[in-house]
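lol so apparently i was supposed to do this last week
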Amino acid sequence: MKCLECHQDLARLDNGHLADCCGLTLQEYAIRHHLPLDILIDQDRLNLQESVNHYPRVATSDNPLARAYLTGLSLAGKVCRAPGLSFIEGDVKRLELLLWCLQGLEAFGFKYRQEYFYADHSHRVIARNRLKTRSDNVEFLQDHIDLDAPNLLDTLAVLVAFNGELHTNYLFIPLADTEICASLLQKMHQQYRVTFKSLEACARSQGALMRTETERDTREFLSLIKDRLASMPGCEARFYLDGPRATVVKELLFDSAHFITDYPGKCSNLHGGRYSIKVKVADRIDPATGFVLDYGYLKAVVEQLIISQLDHQSLNYVGAELAWRSSTELLSIFIWEQLIEYLPGLTELQIHETARSYCRYTGPSLAEFQIQGPSPLLTHFKAPELGRSPLRVKFIESSG
Ligand SMILES: [Zn+2]
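anyway here it is w/ zinc ion bound
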């Protein structure tokens, strides 16, 4: 096989050769030369089980910084503990970040491995980039995570580097463990005066999802960890710099019935139909993920917050907001006000009531919504002052 980097003829191309020749891993070489891994990886290198004996047993390390990094990775759900060997998995696009972590984690006996598996479900060879160590070297992680430990900012910086996503000036951080979320939010508020909130319909597999409450919280928090993130490969571009933008759109369907009050036509009758909702989010493309937003997240948020609430319901009875008039216009506002917390890059909703009748709506930004609150168009029948005007005397008199 000829190495496409140095043009040498080789009996077999492996990471040993590539390390000397160009410094790429086999996976990066495969991507650079757009080759399937299947033709680069021989059978004997697939699905290997490594022995614990390849890893040194280290005395519980007295290295608070390494401990802080490992805690951050654990909060991020990146530490996979198994009998024998444990590992931390990273993305190929963020290989430098993984290797940066390794500098500290060598204190716990970690070594870098690129491992190759035949993935039955995708019918191809896939690679995994892992930092691995003996499980008994990281036994202490099984205890509860100590948020009072020194170097908490180092822990948080690593958590952000691996799991953080910046969406329209709000920082989103998925957490592996729901239990730790409340105490972490409290700690951030007390110690750093930065407010995060937990988004309940978290939608991302398991665990919790937290988001900075306001744009100011994002600025404050990112400035607190700026020096740390600046030292981590790729993080400055993700959290402090601009980049190309795009709009992603997800369309979902639901079936509902409704009627229109005080309307001189057929729509005053209860009738049903299939609605289509197109949710558009405009934002910067995250250089680490190549996405504006994961479509899976977008779909799950709309399903959990909106579709589950409206599908196979009479829209007029879903809430007081829609009870008087469940028009596409008011429905748009109703949906916008629920989605904006989860999708601060929301730029437009398009709701089709029929194939040929639809409404396009752009509502307030999350920052504006936080100041203005819900639209008075939706709250008229909920407002406490309704029924308190002096004219209601007439109503009371007439009602005898
Ligand atoms: Zn070469």
